[in-house]
Amino acid sequence: MKFARICITKYSRQGFKSGDEMGLIFDQHTCKAAFVEHFEDMMPVVDNGYGWKPLEEIYNAYLEMIDEGTVEVSKLDASSKKLTWTRESNWDKIGPWLWHEFTDIDVRKSALAFKRLTDAIETRLPLQQPASTESVPQQETDSPPWSDSSVLDAAHIPVGTFARAFCEETARLGRNLSFQYIAPGIRIPTAEEFIAQPFYARHTQKPHYSMPGYLFCTEDPENPSNSATPESVTWLYHDEEAIPAGLYTKGHSRMSQLCQDSCHLILPFKFGSNGWARLSDLEVFGMKPWDDRPEPADVNADLYQPGYNGFIPLHSVRLHKVLTNWAERIESGDWIVTENGVAGGLEKWREADTEDGWQKYWIPLAW
Length: 367
What we know:
By secondary structure, this protein is an alpha+beta fold.
């Protein structure tokens, strides 16, 4: 039985959808709150309970956004009497506030998470490293391909984007690697694979979009069995085209991108119908958020995604959270390391839809 919530709109959202915007709503019975972007999101949040947090936790998250520079408050220029900000953004200014799609702190978080991951693998490599029996293309160097700025240029990773900044920072912090696999069936690409960005041709047709970056690839990305058609609700979907499975960082467009450090792990198979796999807001995979009785479904792009986060508008999971989860799987012994890195293959990901395994692949809700 569901109980009616007595909610008030505590802060209204500045909007552009003819009055359909909502804001931060407060449940007077539970003393919890949730950010609701549009009126159409009221049912999954209010009726189904996704994304609710103590109000003080949301306030603390907003303060953290200001501290980290994600949200910047303007300063009044004494001579011009105009509001100024330290840097530009693709987002419109709202009063004295400006939202930045990523910050230096976001880049640093992701780079340090990648270093933690590679350090965890390196320290667990067998002392004796026999020749690998896996059929994997060999890298020209032992460092990630993006360590060479000419490779970044050839891959058309633009300066001023999160993807470019992440690659440059990991190159600065990193070291030569003696392995390839950083997660089950997921590896660092060769320079040739990195340069052959799957979305580049499409990006040239829409220059106002920054293309998604193909960061980590699967065992054999050229094998059709390791390709997938992203779910239609993801920003990677395009006319039912299949793309190589792997991890992609999000591109941006002014109207649709909130966090450039967002990412998606696309797997070459679908799973979730067992009902154990969960988004961060505890939705089952593949459900329609407004369903009163959620029915799980097999999908290929929901793993690690937050769902209704309760703090800010909907966005994909941030890269540093995924890389941190991968490091934790190694540090806790959930993933085994062999001579070529993390073992187990792509089938290992099916553990996320099991009773014993789902929490290992679940990221707690955060902004």
